[in-house]
Design goal:
The chain has 293 residues and is of the alpha/beta class. 43% of the residues lie in helices and 13% in strands. It contains 12 helices and 8 strands.
């Protein structure tokens, strides 16, 4: 959550990051991520939900006692995508979907009042400018949202939990191709909203670019839930495509697995857990009791 409001949410709380890198050492920061216990009408525990973040600075200690217990007790891990540790393969898919020859220069694809701030972001990016000439709007938004981000995908909670589950079953709700395909198939006007929204959010959050990261570290459910209805995610079409629609599909896959062995730990981006269209609310509507741990 260290990017710009809702597109930041997409890159760090909502979608798995598209690049890797090795975690380093560093000063330790203690975090309190959102963890919920799923219980049926009889009070029997049937699984857990863990709100992850897909990129973190070095030295963040996030495994609370309750998270350690859930990781130990769960029999199977559900994550967003089943191939998120395959960095080379995911980068190839991103590159294939993101590129279309003959596009207008990126600066000409945003409103005139956003061209100067876009130039500022591009100047701070380590991506060669000519790479953006054939990059579609949705992909440019994701790449630009990483500018100035302190978190590293290699430190992502999803990756760490996958390592914790070595030897136990791991399933993905999506694949890299299907997840990025959601962006790639957005109508042109929605892709432009993503791109222009990224620029606007960068301008708005320059004074406090890490507010979402701090909310995740603190386990601030109210702030995280509010963010799922702001910025880019306030657009009904984008909210449906990036958040609500995916959550409904995930719940449809998860419900048949509850109430029987193996018990799942669902570790997905925190934005998917909170708010009126979050997994917590959807499971409660199905009669389950969700308790913060």
């Amino acid at each position: 959550m260290s990017l710009f409001r809702s597109i930041a949410l997409a890159c760090t709380l909502l979608i798995a990051a598209c690049s890797g890198g090795e975690p380093d050492g560093g000063d330790e920061t203690t975090a309190n991520p959102l963890l919920y216990e799923i219980a049926n009408a009889d009070g029997e525990v049937e699984g857990w939900l863990l709100g992850t973040i897909h990129a973190l600075p070095d030295g963040v200690s996030w495994r609370t006692a309750a998270i350690k217990d859930a990781i130990e007790a769960a029999d199977i891990l559900w994550v967003e995508i089943d191939d998120q540790t395959n960095d080379a393969g995911r980068a190839e898919i991103f590159a294939r979907l993101a590129r279309t020859p003959g596009l207008d220069p990126l600066q000409e694809r945003v409103a005139p009042d956003l061209r100067e701030p876009l130039e500022m972001i591009l100047a701070r990016s380590d991506i060669p400018l000519d790479q953006f000439h054939s990059t579609e709007d949705w992909a440019a938004a994701i790449l630009l949202a990483r500018v100035d981000a302190k978190g590293k995908p290699a430190n992502g909670v999803d990756r760490a939990v996958i390592r914790d589950f070595e030897g136990r079953p791991i399933r993905g709700f999506e694949t890299t191709a299907s997840q990025l395909g959601i962006f790639d198939t957005l109508p042109d006007e929605d892709q432009q909203d993503l791109l222009e929204g990224t620029v606007r959010e960068w301008m708005a959050s320059r004074d406090n670019p890490d507010w979402l990261l701090q909310a995740w570290l603190a386990g601030d459910e109210a702030t995280l839930a509010r963010a799922t209805g702001e910025g880019i995610l306030a657009y009904p079409e984008l909210h449906e495509a990036l958040l609500a629609g995916r959550n409904r599909r995930w719940v449809a896959s998860l419900l048949p697995e509850l109430g029987k062995q193996p018990k799942p730990l669902v570790a997905v981006g925190t934005a998917h857990l909170v708010g009126p269209d979050g997994l917590v609310a959807m499971l409660e509507a199905e009669g389950y009791t969700l308790t913060r741990r």
